[in-house]
Amino acid sequence: MTALDAVVYGAAELVAGPAADDRGLETYADGAVAIVDGTVAAVGPTADVTAEYPPENANHAVDADGQAVVPGFVDPHTHALFAGDRSDEFAAKLRGKSYQDILAEGGGILRTVRAVREADEETLLSNLLAHLDTMLAHGTTTVEVKSGYGLDTETELRMLRVIDSADDIHPVDVVPTFMGAHAVPEGWDADDYTAAVVDEQLPAVESQGIAEFCDVFCEEGVFSVSQSRRVLEAGAAAGLTPKVHAEELAHIGGTQLAADVGAASADHLLHATGEDIDALVDAAVTPVLLPGTAFGLGAAYADATAFRDRGASVAVATDFNPNCHSHSMGFALSLACVEMGLTPAEALVAGTKHAALALDRADGLGTLREGAPGDVAVLAAPSHVHIPYQYGTNVVDTVLKGGSVVSTPTHESYARDMQP
Ligand SMILES: N=CN[C@@H](CCC(=O)O)C(=O)O
Ligand SMILES: [Zn+2]
């Protein structure tokens, strides 16, 4: 027996995905989408979709009159599982301290590591679930979450177990990444710690089968290119697809490494060169740009238009972490437009279809085409342009995950009745 989970109909603008020529969007005015057994069964003009799938027969009938309907956001880079509070570091950065100064003093990642090692599994899980709630209310239906605040086998495994439990419990799909090589822990030398990641942590992670990707912070003063390569190659041998934090604070060759090892993505890329971009395009590695991080650091933004113009499928993520405390893909997309030069349509694709590529998802995730997961964000606004336009405002009204309504606004929505 198939179930008609949901029909969302009468949308002022329904975005099915990128246009066929990959320029602009495929949209329908007075559009609808029908979801059967968790998957998009039909998308198009309301009259056509509802003739085959009458809303009155659906478990969830959503009248989207005057509203835009877009694919749920895919956030392909976060460190959303942590404990502790680093707001004082934000204030210190405003007074002129650098991210590296803070790390060198035992703050930053190392401070979060101390807090996470002290936190029990229950606390960590409730922290992550609360963040997922906020992300979902902002329209995110799939999110990647990294370990990397344990930096020892026991705590890295604890983090991955929590990520796995959150995926089971919460409507948001949580994609697990092992990042034992996120920083060199206090009291260790980088070479010895690299060996511990490869010889102790990775075999333990492999035996539990609870990670899909392996990431490394390839950065001046953190892990060199050759140490990063050791970790990623051992990760690949353990069945984990590589990802690389590359050229964030300095240019040391992490992008070329990502291309060499066939990574799913190379992320940050603030200092990537034209040659680096070409290498990513040739190796089909998705660049993930993180404008919220540059915003918080007061750093120059990655040049998104250079990636686009050289043929890359640019993805955008929040990088939500204690150093970049934003759950909102909408805010990241605003920055991608205003500070990085993407159009609203390109930014939306970067936060949906291209973000799904960064997670190696080829099932239509990030679109509302037939066969794609039924993950939908209904906006309290008439077009996708309002996502970047209403910066700092959550324009997401109702969210469906696999055809079920999983988030509704807590207030009466007047926006839907607003006249242009
Ligand atoms: N750059 C390395 N890792 C994180 C920051 C993590 C932290 O500061 O806690 C990032 O991607 O921005
Ligand atoms: Zn990161």
Q: For this structure, what is the CATH class of the largest domain?
A: Alpha Beta
Task: Please give the largest β-sheet.
Answer: 8 strands, parallel
Instruction: Give the tally of β-strands.
Output: 18
Structural class: alpha/beta
Tally of contiguous helical segments: 16
Q: What is the CATH superfamily of the largest domain?
A: Metal-dependent hydrolases
What is the correct CATH architecture of the largest domain? Answer: Alpha-Beta Barrel
The CATH topology of the largest domain is what? TIM Barrel
Spans with pLDDT under 50 lasting ≥5 residues? Answer: none
What are the distinct ligands in this entry?
Answer: N-(iminomethyl)-L-glutamic acid, zinc ion
Number of domains: 2
> How much of the residues is beta strand, in percent?
15-25%
The average pLDDT score comes to: 96
Q: Report the C-alpha radius of gyration, rounded.
A: 21 Å
**Outline:** globular
- Biggest sheet: strand arrangement: 8-9-10-11-12-13-14-15
Helix content: 25-40%
What's the N-to-C terminus distance?
Answer: 43 Å
